[in-house]
Structure formats: C-alpha cells, structure tokens
Fold these 2 entries.
Entry 1:
Amino acid sequence: MFKAEQLAQTLHQLIEQGVWKPHQKLPSLREQAQTSGYSLMTVLNAYQELEARGLVFAREKSGYYVADQNMQPTALDRIEDSTLQSNIQMNSFVFDYLKSIQPTNILPFGSAFPNTALLHQPKLLQIVAQHARRKQSYESSASMPPGLLTLQQIIARRYSLQGIATEPQDIVITSGCLDALNLSLQAVAKPGDYILLQQTIFYGTWQAAERLGLNVITLPEHPEYGFDLEKFEQCLQMYPIKVCWLMLNSHNPIGFSVNDDIKQKIAQLLAHYQVYLIEDDVYQELYFGSKKPLSVKYFDQDHRVLHCSSFSKTLGAGFRVGWVHHRKLSNQIQHLQLMSTIAVSPLLQHALVDFLSTHHYEKHLRSLRLQLERHKKLFYRYLKQHLPEECDVYYYPSGYFIWIKLPKHIDSTQLYQTLLTHHIGIAPSQLFTVNRQQQHFIRLNCSFELNDQTQHSLATIIQTITHPS
Amino acid sequence: MFKAEQLAQTLHQLIEQGVWKPHQKLPSLREQAQTSGYSLMTVLNAYQELEARGLVFAREKSGYYVADQNMQPTALDRIEDSTLQSNIQMNSFVFDYLKSIQPTNILPFGSAFPNTALLHQPKLLQIVAQHARRKQSYESSASMPPGLLTLQQIIARRYSLQGIATEPQDIVITSGCLDALNLSLQAVAKPGDYILLQQTIFYGTWQAAERLGLNVITLPEHPEYGFDLEKFEQCLQMYPIKVCWLMLNSHNPIGFSVNDDIKQKIAQLLAHYQVYLIEDDVYQELYFGSKKPLSVKYFDQDHRVLHCSSFSKTLGAGFRVGWVHHRKLSNQIQHLQLMSTIAVSPLLQHALVDFLSTHHYEKHLRSLRLQLERHKKLFYRYLKQHLPEECDVYYYPSGYFIWIKLPKHIDSTQLYQTLLTHHIGIAPSQLFTVNRQQQHFIRLNCSFELNDQTQHSLATIIQTITHPS
C-alpha cells in the first residue's frame, strides 16, 4: 500500500502542475505498470486513491480521466442587453413550485436547502434542549429589534475578523436572510422605484420586486466573470436606479463567485452613482478551499451596502436566523421590523449564541464544506459522464447547486413537471429569470450522497432529457 | 376558626344575593360582633377570609367595603364622532416607547405581555427539549406555508368545539398574531383603501394602517357597551370602507368585551355592506369566569371575517406562533407569507402540537386565568383605594390590563416619562389613539404579584399623579 501511495503522490503532482490536464485520459493500468515498474495492483490502488481524492474519475469501460480541479468554468450564455421589466409576476409560480416539491416522497434535487443530514448538529440541538429546560425569562430584550445583543456581538466579531470593521449595533437580527433582504429593500426603495437585478437570480429577489411594485432592470451575466462591470455601469448611467440587489458569492442558481477586483469596482461605482446595494451573501460560508471570498461590503467606504446573510444555509431552515449589516440604516430597518416580523424566537437566539461562542460552528462549517465539495464533485462527474454532449454542466467550487444548460428545444418547466411524476424534484429556470430565451436551464441540489437511489434518480433525469416523451 | 368560616359563608351569600352592594361599607367589627353574637376575633377572621376571597376590601382607618364583583363598569368617555385620519404616524413613538421599557430594571407595568412567571410551563419546555434532542428532520412541510398540518388540525378542532365549523386547511400558521393580522390586512386592502378602526386600539393596528398607507376611519367607543353599533353602521354607509379591524374580546388597552348580540349584529352588517373584518382575538382565552366569549367569526355566515389569534399571550413571546382562520383567503395569505415571513420555527410547531395534544394546555389556561383574575383584582382594589377620586379606574373581568382615566390636565406621555426616571414603565394613551382629546389615559399591566416592590411602585405612580412635579 505504501508503494501505491507513493505513486499516487507522484501522479497527484503531475496533475497539480498541469502536466496532465483536466479531461485527459490517464495511461491504462497496463501502460502505467509498464512505465513505472509498479505492479498492476499497485497502479490500480494508486488510481483509486486519486479517485478518492477527487483528482481523477473512472469512465466505464474506458479508463481513468483527470477531473476538473480548478475548473475553467464553461462560459455562460451571452444575452445581449439589459432590459426593463415593469410588472414582475413570479410569486404564483414559485408558490406552486414550492408546494409541489414539498411532499417527503419527492426527491429534493429541487430544494434550495442543503441536505439536512449534513446540518443537524447534535451539539447545537443539545444546547437548544438545555436552554429549553432552563426556566429563564427570554422575553425582554431578545424579543424586540434589533435582537439579542450577545448575538449582534458575535456576528460583528465575525465581520471584524474578515477585515470589515463592525460594531454590534450595525447588525439587526432578522427572521432569516430573506427577511433581512426584504426589510433592507423596504428601507431604501418605494413602489415605482428602479432596481437592478441580475438576469438570472433566486426567486425571492423577483418576489420582493413584485411585492413592492418596482421597475426592474436586468443585468445579463458576464460569460466569463459572472458579473458584467461594463454593462453594470451602463445601466447606472441609463436608468434612475435607486438600489441594486446582487448575489456575488456562490450565486444562486448558477453557482459562480465573482472575483474580488470586480467587487471592489462595484463598490466604487455604487459610491460614484450614489446607489444602494442589497448584497445577498447567504452562501458566503460555503466556499471550497481555504480562502473565504470577500464581499462588496468589504470595499464599502461609502455605506452603500446592506449586507445580508443567515445561519439557515449552514444550520438548517429550523434556524432561520439572519441579519443585515448597515450602520446608518439600522434604525430604519428596526422600525420596519417592528411593523412586521418583530423578532426571532429568543430561545433560538440564545441557543445560537452559546453554539457560536465555542468552536463548534467553525468545526461544523469545515466539515460541511468538505462534504458539500465531495457530493458536488461526485454529482458533477456523474452528470458530465452521462448527460448528452449538447448539455453544459456548470461546476464552480462552492455551494451545492449545479446549473445545467439543456438543448434549446427542451422546456425545463415541462421537464420539471414530467420528473415530478417520477417523484423527482428539480428547479427549472422559470424560477430564476423572466427571460423567455432562457427556459432550458435547470438547477440541481447536489448536497446528497450519491447512492443507488440518488444515482438512479439522476439516471431518470438524464433519460428524460435524452428522450423527452 | 370554624365559626369564622361559618360567618364568612353567611356574609358571602349576602354579597352574592346583592343584599350588600359593591362599595357599601360593611358593619364595623364591633357592630358585627354585637349583631351576630360572635367574638371580635371571629368577626375579624371572617372579614379577612372574605378579603382573601376578593369579596371585600379594607380601606385604611375606615373599615371593610364590598368589592365590585360583577362590576358595572364605569362608563367610557363619549367622544362625539367618527373621524377620518389620512396620514397615520404612530410607529416612531411606539418604537421609542418599546425601547424605553425594554431594560430589565424597568418595572414592566407598561408591557403588553403577561408576567412571564405565569407562562413558563415546565411541561412545555420539557417537550421543546425533547424535540430538540431528537435528530429529526423538521425541514420539509412545517417550514412552508400554511405550517404544520397537525397544528392546523388541533387549532381547527378548538374552533369546532366552540361551534365554528372549521377545516384544518382554513388555518394558516403565522409568526404570532401580529403577523396574522398584517398578512390578513394585506390580503384584503391596498394603499389608499379605507379601513375602520376603533378610536382607542392596540398600536400594532395603527402601525399596520401606517405601513400600508390606508385612510383610517375611527369609531368611538360606546360608553356602555364598548362598541357603538349605530355609529358603526353610519360609518359603513358614509365611507367606502373596505375592511374593519376590531378587537372585541378583552380589548387592548381598555379591557372590555363586547356582548354576543352585538357581535352577531356586526356579522350581519359586514355581510350587508360586503366589508371584511380582521378580528384581533389574541386575548380570547383570558376571560374570567366559566364561559368563553364568542367571536364575530362565530356568526360569520358570509366569510367576511379573518379571525386572528396566537399562543404568545398564553405561552409567552418565545412562543410567537399565531394563526389566521379564513377559508377562501387562505391561499392568498399563504402567497403573501411566502414573500415575507415564510414560516415559524418547525421545532416550536412540533413542540406545540405535542403540548396541545394533551390536557396540559387547558390546565395551564385554567390556572393562568385564576392567577390573572387574582392579580388584577388586587391591583384594582389598591388603585381604587389610593388614586384620587377624579381618576376613573376601568375594571373588566378578563385579561390583565387596567385602563385609567387621569384628570384632564395630566399628560400621560409626560407621566410615562417621569415614571421612567423612577424605573417604572406604564403605557400612555398616545400609544393607542391619535385623538388629541384623549391624552390623559394610561394602561397598566396587572399580571404581577402585589408584593412590597410592586405596591411601592404603584404608590409612586399614584404619588406622581397626585403631585405632578
């Protein structure tokens, strides 16, 4: 076994140094044995070790191939221009969709939440139980905006550690990220105002625009960088935009993260054009690798950014505790909160404080990221191997969504409905865009174990795409 | 002691039969001893027993008086007419107020929540702890509108038991009653619509009207019945009212409950004028005596009533789980919910189901009612004895608020600010009405033990009223 590890290490370096390129076929077992002088069994063990490390993948009856590591992502579609959308009507479709994938017998590839098996922390639940047992009065401070002071402090410290100077009073605790986003939007926009959104974006964003009766300017994705700075500035020049709402890390549904240079330039443009940004950073903790991505908030000298996030994507929907970070608008947001959602359960806030005060959360995040990366890679490889060539499979190293472009003749909403009859949920692009040219994409939740059941379901999805009835 | 009990029983009957009337002075100890032939000590013991039963009260250096039992409530002020209010601005004052009474060193006579010592059910908390310990997945159904089916079923059953035929799907679970009320209002009214409100009402109602930009018609209280049917119909005739928002049981802040005949007539008028009613019935369980009051919903043949309530006033703000009951609008309310608060913590919903499925809740309610009645009566007697005569103290047999009319020259907002410096919170009428003629009322939360500390604070309030600085 020692020899196998040695060989694996050598090959690992070849791949890392780029000598062997992604999708390149590895020498056959026999060739490799001959070249290296190792036994066939040793070579097989080495290849399997590389596969376990996620560096290579096996294709049936064909051999081993180098996996995409720093995958140069497939370029996104270039949609020519930004457009004005005045009468958004997304909510009813979203509502029916969410109801349809709700039954427990529907495989949750369409869900927006990560696999709960990865989230249910025994330690956290133990703390909740302890708090519930204590007969303390949790009524006073935590049940009013801005929420529990000790929780504000802990969140502020996490920002400060990333280099964003933050005071506890800059943080308003909310009922999840969507509440933070909605309150932020209400704080800066009123019916009829102009808002800039990414052309493809999480349905909650569309619903918020619909609810407030906003005029929406859509910004197409940049094929390479995800975010098109040039078009962004054009929009700021052309339209009386009051506020933007952007997702730049682990974008939902596509998955890309925008690089830090672009974020810095966005911050500069916001300051220059005096436009607010609602930054939806709910997936900020779900990066793969060692470096947490920055946010536009990091570059926000001019207090234009309302930075929103939550614990619900790392601890589960049962911990729908979010927050918004903005010094000057904190009071206004609390005023709005007092007229609507008021506060998160004090019990959950107190339990969270205990959990976050220790290293439990960091430990949980590390393990969550590793597991998500493993699942996502296995899903990606399976899809890449079995989907017809005309499909594009977009893999980015963060989060748990994979975005797939189907052949243009396939209507993804119809596909979703067909798959429902097989008890499989997928998220069609109609949930994420109002652009009629983009109805052939789907988002898959890849946070699940690739076992017989899930693999069989993926096979059904692929089969239905390949041979639409 | 047996003799004393016998005498107490005899006198108890005299009071019950109305031979001795409320506020009538009892014979002095000496007179009673002479008449009855009992010893002075026996008479004293009997009087003390009656006092403990809440039937008589002692006035210093004066003797014993019969307490108001079926108190004929003091007539409310007659404010002449309904008025149109187009630009409600209540939220900022409410916000500052709630912040000001939040510190734990402020005595919570101004709070809207009952004394948490009466609410923290060991049994309920034990169930929460059990649920938290189980590593179940609570993510799926309970985290989407309309909430957990088993909770809908239990609430529906409670309605049916009161004679209101209800299906589980008529119930939408919300984040507390205020969320239910706000969602209901959004479901039936849009900015600029006309809404009818009681002239004196819970600030959340004003905030909701402010938030939606509604035109508010205020309906003055009926001096005797609390609700003025005649003026109500006049308003429905005069204004294009889309929806009413009323509180008819254990009205906050005044405390009255409207009788069932009036509720029935309200239902008829709603049907006739095709107007919706948002019925805030959050205190429905806090009646004293044996009969639960009905609601307008009970008489609602025409589906005009959105009936809203919650567990937060019986189980605490930590259990901010409410609901709205309306068959036809259920789907629309869920759509709105999906764009805002989404759902209550599944953990709390599951724990509630377990708690409500047993007799724990009924037992808790019975004990809560008895304790609230005891506290409220003791507060009332103390206030009645010590407040200057020109103050009216409104006592009604439900809930835990006492509404006090001060002499007209006293500004209750100033009084509240002065008392804050003594670390005492009270709720001034500015929180409940936009009528400038009514700034000399206060609401006291009387759900606390009348001990040395609370009595001393009441004395400070009375002192400040009697000798304003």
Entry 2:
Amino acid sequence: MTHNIAILGASGYTGAELIRLIAQHPNIEIKALSGERKAGMEMAEVFPHLRHMQLPTLCKIEEIDFSGIDLCFCALPHKTSQQVIAALPTDLKIVDLSADFRLRDPAEYEKWYGNPHAALAQQEEAVYGLTEFYRDEIKAARLVAGTGCNAATGQFALRPLISAGVVDLDEIILDLKCAVSGAGRSLKENLLHAELSEGYNPYSFGGTHRHLGEFDQEFSKLAGRPVRVQFTPHLIPANRGILGTVYVKGDAETIYQTLAEAYAAEPFVQVLPFGQAPSTHHVRGSNYCHIGVAADRLPGRAIVFAALDNLTKGSSGQALQNANLMLGEKEEEGLTMAPLFP
Amino acid sequence: MTHNIAILGASGYTGAELIRLIAQHPNIEIKALSGERKAGMEMAEVFPHLRHMQLPTLCKIEEIDFSGIDLCFCALPHKTSQQVIAALPTDLKIVDLSADFRLRDPAEYEKWYGNPHAALAQQEEAVYGLTEFYRDEIKAARLVAGTGCNAATGQFALRPLISAGVVDLDEIILDLKCAVSGAGRSLKENLLHAELSEGYNPYSFGGTHRHLGEFDQEFSKLAGRPVRVQFTPHLIPANRGILGTVYVKGDAETIYQTLAEAYAAEPFVQVLPFGQAPSTHHVRGSNYCHIGVAADRLPGRAIVFAALDNLTKGSSGQALQNANLMLGEKEEEGLTMAPLFP
Amino acid sequence: MTHNIAILGASGYTGAELIRLIAQHPNIEIKALSGERKAGMEMAEVFPHLRHMQLPTLCKIEEIDFSGIDLCFCALPHKTSQQVIAALPTDLKIVDLSADFRLRDPAEYEKWYGNPHAALAQQEEAVYGLTEFYRDEIKAARLVAGTGCNAATGQFALRPLISAGVVDLDEIILDLKCAVSGAGRSLKENLLHAELSEGYNPYSFGGTHRHLGEFDQEFSKLAGRPVRVQFTPHLIPANRGILGTVYVKGDAETIYQTLAEAYAAEPFVQVLPFGQAPSTHHVRGSNYCHIGVAADRLPGRAIVFAALDNLTKGSSGQALQNANLMLGEKEEEGLTMAPLFP
Amino acid sequence: MTHNIAILGASGYTGAELIRLIAQHPNIEIKALSGERKAGMEMAEVFPHLRHMQLPTLCKIEEIDFSGIDLCFCALPHKTSQQVIAALPTDLKIVDLSADFRLRDPAEYEKWYGNPHAALAQQEEAVYGLTEFYRDEIKAARLVAGTGCNAATGQFALRPLISAGVVDLDEIILDLKCAVSGAGRSLKENLLHAELSEGYNPYSFGGTHRHLGEFDQEFSKLAGRPVRVQFTPHLIPANRGILGTVYVKGDAETIYQTLAEAYAAEPFVQVLPFGQAPSTHHVRGSNYCHIGVAADRLPGRAIVFAALDNLTKGSSGQALQNANLMLGEKEEEGLTMAPLFP
C-alpha cells in the first residue's frame, strides 16, 4: 500500500534530505512539495543532486490539495511552522521538523523562543518525536514534533542514565561539536566557507542555546525533579555530524552496562565496545547513532560520547522513522543505508 | 534468487564502497571478504561505519571456498590482481576493479604499467567494463575489467562525440579535477590532511598518467584511427568526486545534441540543459554522472563537462552495475540512491 | 619617513588583507579606515583576527580628512569605486583594488561590466597595476588599477610567451581553479560552507568571465594584434589560492627558457625547475607566484602552470607592492613573509 | 648583532614553522638545518613554500659545526631529542620543542612516556618554556623545554585561576579541540585527508594523553597540592588551531578579572570582552592566544575558552619567543605578524 505525502519547506536541507531518504522507501510517494519563495521552480534547479528523480514542481502551500495526502512533513522555519500547522486539516497526520511543538509548557516555549505560541491546541496534542523513547505515543499520534538535532544527541547519551539514576544529576556537562548544515541554508556571514573552514569556535554558550529547553523538559521528566545540564555547542568545519562529549559522575562500567542494555534491541543506536569512542565520520548520511563510554583517570568520572548525522538521525531520518510508525510501516523502512565513508 | 559474492581486498575504499552499495541490493549476499594484512579482523574495526552490518570476518584469499561463490569482486592493488585472478577457478565470474585487465594489448599494458602481464589468458578474455558502452559483452562475460575512474569520466564526455565524428580528433584537451579517495587508503605524505586540504595542484601531467592507456585504446577504436588526447589531472581537497573539463573543437549545439541523444535512455547518465555545467557536489555518493555542454565565445569551440563520484560511478558502483548484468539482475539494482548533499 | 594611508572598504577581505600586510611595513601608518555599513565599529569586531592591532575606528568616507593622507587604497565594490574615486582630491595617490579602472577602452568597460563608466578622466589616467610589467608607469602614476586576481595569474603565465612570440596565439586555453575568498565576503548561497566544501564546479565559463576583458586588452597589446584566449574558471573548496593550467602550442623548452629569463630577477615570481608544477599550498598567504612548465606527450604542446594567493599577490599584496613604488619605498617592503604551510 | 642558529629536525612542520618565523627576524641567521632521512636535500624540495629563501642544505646532525652556533632549536621526535641533546656541546643554548624535557620528575617522565630518561643531567637543568610564566628562568637558561601545544592552551586558560585560587581545583574539565598538524607529518591512516576531513572524534581520552603530565606538574606546583584535571582532546578537520573549552566552578566575573589582570601587559595573550568567545580562525598562523570567559546559566559555573595556533604559539612561535629571551633580543621580535584570515 502506498502512502501519499507532502513536504512543506522542501527547498531547505532537511526537506532535501527527506526526499533523498524517501527515494529509498518502497511505499511512500511524494505528491506535493512546497517552497514559498521558490514556488514554480523544479527541484532539479533548487537541488541539482535530485535531478534524476521525478518530483512535483515546488508550489505554495495554499496550492496543495491535502485531501489526498496521508501525511505531511513540515520542514518550515520555526514560528512559521506553528502558523501553517494551525491552518492544516485537523485529521492530517503531521511530522514537524521545526522547534515549534517540542516544548509542552507554553511558558517554556515563550521563554526560549521569545514569542507566545500561536497554535496552543496543536502544541498540547503534539508528541515528542525521539522515536526510541516515544514509540507507542508516536504510533498513535496525529502530530509529532521532531527533536532538535543537538537535543537528540544529548538525549541518546543521557536518557537511560538519568532513568536508571546512575549519574549525578547535578553534574552533567555536555560539550557538543556540530557541523554547519544544522544551521540550514541561511545566508549568514559566519556560515560562509571562507569564514568557517579551517577554524572552529563555541556559540550559544553559557546556557543560552534553545535546545536546553528540550533537555530541561525531558531530563526533568525522567528524573522526577528538575535537572539542569551545562551545555556548550561548538561549530566545526564540516557539513554533517554532531559529536556530544558528555562528562558525568558515576561508575563508568555501570554507565556502560546501562546504555548497552537500553539500546541492545535498537536497530539505529549502536553502543561501541567499552572504552571506544565514536566518530562523526562513521555515521555520515545515515540514520545510525554511535555511542561510546570511557572511564576517566579520575575515580567516579566517566565520559559518554554520542555521534549522529544532524540531517539524518538528528532530523529528517528521525522524521521518516516517526512517519513509518504513524503509517503502520516497518520502522526501519527507507532508513537502513550505510553511512558514506570516506 | 540470491547470488553469493566475495570481495577480495575489502579493507580498501573501493571494497568498503562495494559493501555500502550491496547493502541496498535485495538479491546479493556477501559470503566472504578478504584482506591480507587485516585477516582475522572484523569489518567494524577496519571500517567502523559498517558496524551495523552482519559481515564475514576478513580472511586471507586462500581461506575462501569459492565453490559457493557466484561472483567475485576483486578490489586488489594493481599487479596483485592479475596474480590472484590467474589462480581463481576458471568458471568463477569476476569483476575486477584494478587496472590489470583494462588494456587489451599486452605491449600497451607493459608500456603504462612497467611490467609484463602475468595473466595473459585472462587479459585476452576480459571485457572492458564501461557499462553503458559494453552492455552486451558484459552480460556474456566471465571477467569484466572495471575502468579507471578518470578514464570513465573522460569517456562519458567524449565517446559519443568521437563515434559521431563531431569533434576534431587532434584537438582534445581533458583537464581533470579529482578528489583524494581515488588515491586509495595508502599512506603517502601528499595525501595527509595537512598537506592536501586548502590547496590543489596538478599531478601526473604531460602525458604520463596511466589512464591515458585507456583513452588511447578506446578512442582509437571508436575513431578507427589513432587518437591521442591531452590529459592533465589535478588533486583537489575533497574526498569524492571527479570533474572533467573537456576542450573540444566542433559545433557546440551539435555536440550537445549528440550527447543528449546518446544518453537519453541511460538511467545513470544525465545530460543537463545546454549551457549548464555540473558540480561534483551533486553526484557525491551516487552512481550518477552529470554532463554539461557549453559553447565558448571563440567560434567552433565547445566545452564538455562531466562529473561523477570516483568511488561509485567511477569504481564500485560501476562494478555493481556490471555484476548486475552478469548475474541477470536489473542493471540499476542497489544503485539508485540519491547523492548526498550537502 | 612614514607615509600616511587610508583604506576605503576596510570591512572586506582585501581590506583586511591590506591591514595584515601593512602591519609588517615599517614606514606606513594607517590613518583612516572606511566601511559604510559598519561605520562606528572597531576592526576588532569586524575582523577579530586584527584585535591585537591599534587601528582607527571604521568611519564613513565623507568623515575622512584626506589632507594628511599620502596614499589611499580603495577596496570598494566595483561601480562604487569609480564614483568614490571621481570625488577624491585630484592630487591624492590612489591604488584601486576594484575592476573599475583596469580597462582602458570605455567601450570594453561597458561591454564587460554593463554600465557606462562614471569616471572617464580617471580611467584615462589610470595605470594597469601588474607591477612586474608596469613598474616605470606605476612609479609615476597617481592612480593605479589593481588587476583581477585571475587576470594576474593568467598574465604571469603568458605575458613573456606572447611578447616573445613562442606560442600559437590562437590556441591558448586557460583552465583556472580559484578558491572562494576571491568572491569576497558576500552572502551568496553558493559560497556557504555546506554548499561549497567537498565539491567543485566551473562557473562563468564559455567566455563570459569579466577578467577576459583584461586578457584581451593586455595580450592584444603585447602581440600587436587581437588575441582571444579561452578561459574557464572553476570554484574549488579552499579559501585562498588560484592555480592556472595553461595549454599552449609551442616548444616546451623554449617556453621554459622564456619564462625563466623573464622572471630571473623578479623577487616575487619563482619559476620552478623544468617539468615541475606548483601548488597553491606553497604560496598561501604570501606575495609569491610560482610558475611551472612541462612538455606534453603530444609534440609541440606545453602546459604552463601558475599559482598565487588571490588575496595577496592577486590583490592586496600587489596593491602594496604598487604603493611601495608610488611612495618611493623598496618594492618588497612588507611583502616578504613566507607562505603559511600547512 | 646577528645570532647564528641551527635547527635540528627541519623537515617536520615545527621546523618549517621556525624557518617561516625566523625569516621575519632581523637578527637571526640560520646556519644549519638537519634532517636525518632527507640529508642532502634542499629545503625547496622538502617544503616548496620556502623555495624563495636562501637556506642551508639539509644535513646530518653530525655534520654540523656547532662552534659557530649561538643557539640550537631541536625539533626532533620525542626520545630522539634527549639522546641528541645529551651529546651536544654543554655550553650551547638549546630550545627543545620535543616532550623530552618538560617533566622535571624522571618517574613522571617514565610514567607518561614509557622509557627511562636518557639525559637526566639535562632534564634537571631544563627550564619549562611557557614564556609568560617563566620569563626570568628562561632568560638565564641554557636549555629550555617547549611545552606541549595542548598543554600551553590549557595553562593559558587556567594558570592565573589556580594561582589566585578562584576555581574549585577538584572540578576542572578541559575539553580540547585540536587541528591535525599537531600530529606532525607522520604517515598514519587517521591523518589522511580522506579519513579526517568532514568528521571529528575524541582521542587519547580518559586520562591517557601525555600532556596531562604537564598539567599535573604545573597545576600542582601552582596550587601547592596535587591537582588533577579531566582532559579530553578531539581531532578536528582543520590544519592549525587548538580551542580549549574549560569548565570550572567559581565566580565568572572574578575569573574574568583574574585573567584580564594577569594578561593585561602581555603582548601575545589577548583577553576578549566578558562573555565573548575566541575562534581558532582568528589566531591562525600567529603567535597570539585569545581567551574568553562566560558565565553559565548554572550559578557558580563558568567557561573559559582559549584559542591558539598549535604550530605557532603552541610550538615554534613559543620557541622563538624563548630564544629571543635567551639571546637578549626583544621578546616579540619576528613574532608580531597578524593572523591569516580567511
């Protein structure tokens, strides 16, 4: 059985990545692609790497007939997404890749994003889209909110540890290294090749990065009490990949066992042998997340590493994984391609 | 029906690329992987990006039982390959990725590679593996010789033009830009990141690059008289991709029409609209070759551009495409994934 | 004796590069820096790599008192430069880094740049700034027009050969590879790291690149008859560097001798041993140009390679070299730092 | 007055960087360059970016007449250095760039480097070469031991804080990001462009990196009691640069003031405005170290960032800075060039 889908915001990187992945899916057909500023253009012009595919011409959202659409991916900018989704048919299944429906508490949303939420009903309904931890809710959901790519990385490293209570909740430091595609296709000076390549720097440090809203929400919920982690992202001269280096206090072996057991049956989360660390090289272009654990020389301290591709497992791959659950498809369908190395 | 295959030389980039592609193939099963110096190791150690796959442990070639193998990919170094293949069962189907069986004339082989050929019988039997131009021979072949990655690029740009006689055969210049993975996983100073990134240079220029042997053989055969092109490859700081810029004398529109018609029905060769040029960005990790044609301001001159991924269409993708033909599979099977961009 | 200078357009890459170079010059003092949109900002904010220097605050051009300025560098955008320079004091020495005063024929200017020239008097007065070939004129000039960076590269390879008549003037092909900083600090999608890194492509091909105006003017003047070369630039994923690969017909040894003699006494142009090729790696951040010559296997054909740093020898280094001549300083002053490698 | 120097191990990156820097020094002349395996070669062959310089031919150490040498830089591999230095004239001033003389306690040396020290007399005599903190000792020293590049980065961030007692000594975490040239010109698979570019990973984590020996020694000495920091280096796809992200417990404002005061008079250490972070882009190719301090949202926590160029301030620039002190030269001589950006 074929599912018809639409992608809103198909002219950005996450939209293009969705198309790349869906091209490998036997049961999903792309019926509509929107791109407000590029409406009327062919995808071959916007993303020449997709020129071999038969794809709908980019259109405006208002031109889409949603009656024949089974599921809609929203890859729109933050704030735009909530406005658009509020106006979509109320029985349309939606996977949103923006930040708009990740935070359940409207006050938290406003705190991190600066504006009152414009689609409160949908916000209440939305299910947090970290597939491995919300499978049942996602299967039953109409609207799934994809996680932040950094937020996903940190949670893969930490959720089982917080649930199991094997790390000191007040001493968690997440030092993150992100590639540039996470910032999207936006024209900013610091994203130019000449500004970015051959150097690196922290950004949004000190507790200001918006993905902290997700960490606060999810980790506190798991722990049953407020948890506030320290989080410092860095921009690295590469196109894809996130590496999280997580400093925790706890017994390294116990931490390793906890993670190894938590992910033993997960197809997309691979826990490396104890003492080994992952590399973003080895997950590029794939839906896999690699996790490593090492003991520090300082007793009672451990380091947990998590690596994933921000555009795939951190965004569009996760979105397709969720769509598979919502559509009754096999969760892995279209997502098992090996990473691209070198 | 499942075909059992072996990959000899699985610890190099083309070996790993074969595994990545075959992972998407529904009817091929990997039964054996050899790697002389790394025999006994798991692929997850040699190529951690493949750790999610169930793969045979690396072994020595002599440990492989070829009786159950339908087809063998040889991704061994030049010179080694001819020795190994000479000793393999004579009824085993083989796709060789080395340079050893590309040149039909033993004297030409010795001229370009410096040693007398050690497997003359197999050399005589081998079919040149540029799929789009040798389909029937490949379907019937036992041993197919994969082309050089640079040689493939130049031929996609030039073969239809030489066949049709629409360019001056004595005035062809091929300026090539290659990414570094074409040099393999070898430990050479000029392949270090610190030596290569942020700069670029020509190499093997002046008529010394071995792929000229393939150009000479193939173009002369097409033209029915000796054709000698000028060929200058350059090493570019990127991991995958070849861009050929071909300077020809002829009518640009005629040249365009000739190429457009030649590749109209080809699934993997895409001719762009007249006046547009391809980019290696848009073929990365895929089996597609993009071709562009433009007129120069100088009358009677045209530029033909061809872009492909050296590890995929230029090597392992071509190899799988050939194997599909040899095994009676659909030619595109396992090869239709979209390029990875960004 | 100290010379006081101003830099107009100091917030772009060529402006910053001028400051970097002048910092090594014992006899030049920077008195004013303009940046229209960033007026009022400190250079430490605009270019944090210059934060250790004591520099004037960015101002608007109209705020500069030119009475105390000995020489003014104009690193403004094309078209803006001619308007600004037309309004500057007529006795102020000027080195212009834009394209506005490179072409002597107003019709040629309009053909390549699309607008009638707005400062014809100054255009007539301007001296073409390729130092090695216009030394005497530059020493006497009030207004020097810096060359295009691609135009400089091609001319270093070809001028002595055209002057000496040792190559076929109707068969010159210049295949150029440029790094991205040549495009400036402009916010364009194709200059983003995610769009540019790990791939490469031609641009402005077929005879449309504006630097052809310079080639036509200079090469025709040298030859005493019209010369039209074929020119195809490519964008390479690196920040600095231009490599020109020039295909010529002529005797390779003669070509080599001609170049070796022409540059024997030049401090900044290095001719490599016959048969060796330069790399952009080895000129990065310096004012040196490396030239190589090789014979092709095809008789009567040679390849000339030229490599330089587009921001230094191709632009700001050349500008300082010219300013030294105009100010009576030693030509090499401030310009002898070694390239940065790796 | 001109000082004659020799560089032992001039065929590696730190040797080449020394030459690049000394080229800007008015009072130092290079009299001898050694390179065991490349003895007899010209530097133009080994490092073509230095081809414009008049330099001695590479020789073997035994061929050098040290009687006319005022100071010798040793850029030899670890373990080799101690053997060579033990045999040099005992009145020769030496700046060693290896790890051999950094640790004062022979037991600590053996613990981290695995072999008994072979030059105990010299080890006892050596002064630790972090210029800003050992100026007086360095001025009087015969043998100065250059610091590790990572060790320098961490110490610039932390020494004043530990001295002033404004951070919790038991809660220091140093997450470091290093470019690849720190690993030298060695032929290792993980240093290949194809393995390194476009990805990143931790290495020598968990308390195993040898620069911890320096941290332990220096921080404990400052604190007057054992201090053990947590240290996790990561390999980043860039050629030059180290960024240290240091997590400390203490008052961010106090920490900032402490650092600002400590470095107020230092020419090469720049403390950014409070709340700003440095980037390795802005120190590339220079002897500057940029330091930033930010408060975290978690009370009592701060983040200190330090960025420098591993080959310059982290190694060869530091070495020249020390040599200047030992030779009675101005400390900044030859070291004030601005960073190369972009």
